[in-house]
Amino acid sequence: MDLPGLTTHDGATHCSWRQSAPEYAHYHDHEWGVPVGDDIQLFEKICLEGFQAGMAWITILRKRENFRRAFEGFDYQRIARYTEDDIQRLMLDPGIVRNRAKIVSVINNARRACELVAETGSLAAWLWSFEPADAERPARVDLAYWTANPTSIASIRLSKALKKRGWSYVGPTTMYALMQAMGMVNDHLEGCVFRPEIERLRQRFTRP
């Protein structure tokens, strides 16, 4: 019998959400929780997590390639130069989520990212400085913990720091989702075959 939050498929046990949509299998197995240290990849993750607010992640995942095309690969230096004409272009793009506030937020956050990189040298290094200490991490990650903790002390700190710098759509829940996605925390459930693999990747990862 599968434990809560886990399911067995083809002889391997995974987080059960992996089976809820065809696109989730690759995302769960090869992306979610894998440490990321590239500035542009991290900026993309921040933006897509912001677009997810109030929506299902599968909607964003299915449109991700469209987002990448529309936002020029999430090159924040390019996006920082966007004008009202670009906002109108994006609002007419049926391949993305046409939410003006979220589109404007991406442009704002690109400008803030340029400022942060100019000041500190690296978006990745700045973000990873918010990695929670061992004492802040749960001894076990099960469905009950995962369901009851959509934020963390570290994600609240990160959210406040970004908001202070003028970023938007970076609330604590959104930032916790970012931390899960970028490998800052390993929230594959206990018993998921990929949890130990992600932990090995995290141990080998050189923090920027």
UniProtKB/TrEMBL annotation:
Keywords: Metal-binding, Zinc. It comes from the Bacteria. The keyword Repeat does not apply. Gene3D superfamilies: Hypothetical protein, domain 2 (1.10.340.30). InterPro entries: Adenine_glyco, DNA-3mA_glycosylase, DNA_glycosylase. The keyword Cytoplasm does not apply. GO terms for molecular function: DNA-3-methyladenine glycosylase activity; metal ion binding. Zn(2+) binds at C15, H28, H188, C192. GO terms for biological process: base-excision repair. This is DNA-3-methyladenine glycosylase I. It comes from Pseudomonas mucidolens. The lineage of its organism: Bacteria, Pseudomonadati, Pseudomonadota, Gammaproteobacteria, Pseudomonadales.
